[in-house]
Amino acid sequence: MATTTANQQAAPASPGPLKRIILIALIAIIAAGAAGAGVWFFMSKQHAPVAPATAAEPAPSPVPLFFPLESMTVNLQSDDGQQHFLRIGLTLKLNDAKTQQELTDHMPEVRSRILLALSNKHPEELAPLDGKRALATELQTLIEQPTDKGAAPIHVQDVLFTEFVVQ
């Protein structure tokens, strides 16, 4: 009978390692499920506000149109008795092709305004950066003036210098 008692005691020892394996597998499944739930939560949170944000954003502004003018050379005012001149190249930043067509139709008048304004400048006025910025603003105002009586002013976004030589 001693052998039977030894067999009975050995039998309960086998469920212990099986319980450990099941417990480890259960923990691994729970951890994988938690990781999957975390990934799903953060990915869905990232994509949810995309639709409202695009609706709230303003529409992109139209691509500007750049309209280059022919280079101009003009004599400058001089107090020192020497001959000074300015060679200038301009490009206008416009909103649309309609504005470009209006400028093209009235280009002789626009160029005349620009040349008259430039011929009244002194080289000392144009040398510093602030003088160039002031000139760009002045030219923009001149170009925007209506060419016909009663016509609406032309809108120019910016006057850009492509060439600027004072001698």
Automatic annotation (TrEMBL):
InterPro entries: FliL (IPR005503)
This protein's UniProt keywords: Cell inner membrane, Cell membrane, Cell projection, Chemotaxis, Cilium, Flagellar rotation, Flagellum, Membrane, Transmembrane, Transmembrane helix
Topology within the bilayer: Single-pass membrane protein
A Gene Ontology cellular-component term: plasma membrane
Segments traversing the membrane: 21-43
Keyword Membrane part of the UniProt annotation: yes
Major location category of this protein: membrane
Locations listed in the record: Cell inner membrane; Cell membrane
Pfam families in UniProt: FliL
BP GO annotations: bacterial-type flagellum-dependent swarming motility; chemotaxis
Family of this protein: Belongs to the FliL family.
Its job: Controls the rotational direction of flagella during chemotaxis.
UniProt cross-references to PANTHER family, sorted A to Z: FLAGELLAR PROTEIN FLIL
Protein name as annotated: Flagellar protein FliL
Species annotation: Paraburkholderia ginsengiterrae
